[in-house]
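Table 4 source record.
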Amino acid sequence: MTAFAFEVLKAQWRYRLTLQYAIETGISSRGGGNRYVHLSPDGLLVLSDGYAWDGPSGPTLDTPDFMRASAVHDALYQLMGSGKLPIECREKVDQLFHEILIEDKMPRFRAWYVHWAVKLFGSIVLRWKLRA
């Protein structure tokens, strides 16, 4: 795992990476992405320096134990929304999100209900991204 460093913005995107970040996702795909997000066929997700995201969604607190998971999850949902990652990967993406929350020391109960909310409302977000 590489270092995860970001800065707070005062714009639509609330956070931006200040270093490139890479993580093994275990999600195989045909690969692809864009300038800031790339998923290799063997599952390596690379978020480039400058990748911006809106942070944790919903009525929640943007705590340090939530930031890395929110960035990875948003990037993978963007790939699904753009058709570069099959929507059938959503369950794996949501599970990876939960695993990162636990790795980053989020209390297990909070990680459970955050994961539950993502599973419940993620389909709405994904449908919105597919229309955009």
